[in-house]
Amino acid sequence: MARAGLSTEKVVAAAADLADEAGFDHLTVSGLARRLDVRDASLYSHVRNLADLRARVAVLAIGEFADRIAAAVAGRAGKDALAAFAAAYRSFAVDHPGRYAATRTQLDPEMLASTDAPARTIALTRALLRAYGLDEIDETDAVRLLRGFFHGFADLEVNGAFLHGRDVSASWDRAVDALHFTLTNWHLSKEEQ
């Protein structure tokens, strides 16, 4: 029998918090059981195994990530939307490193079907890029550019790789300005081809 007051949602939320503290790769059923002050076996009425627990944390995190970005870009366009999107992305990664790591989990089709968050995130990114007048192929390349930059910068920041005395936020702002410039002038690179 499940512990009174314990639900799958509470188990997954506690697992996400633990992942933020210990790292997503260090999330274990035993560690979560200790955190919840239950036996490991008590958790198996809520999750099948560690892989299931991690997949559920990923679904939760992807949804929270999409919600944060949607709230940030609502009513914005152009550079203002880009800066808000970028700030939401970075703050999620920095504030929730375990959850952020979980968002990169490859989900099986059944688990992926349980959430619309990945599709929402893609739609938000493509909506952001519409202000720059890119065609579909260029939009795909731009999505990859943004994701690569946002992920790389946030990952380096979370792992303490920026040791220079320059303020990290100032570097971030300059890079977002450069991304805006690049997106605004994307068509120029095509004209040269």
TrEMBL record:
Keywords: DNA-binding, Transcription, Transcription regulation. It comes from the Bacteria. InterPro entries: Homeodomain-like_sf (IPR009057), HTH_TetR (IPR001647), MT1864/Rv1816-like_C (IPR025996), Tet_transcr_reg_TetR-rel_C_sf (IPR036271). Residues 28-47 bind DNA. Coiled coil: none annotated. Residues 5-65 form the HTH tetR-type domain. GO terms for molecular function: DNA binding. Pfam families: TetR_C_33. This is Transcriptional regulator.
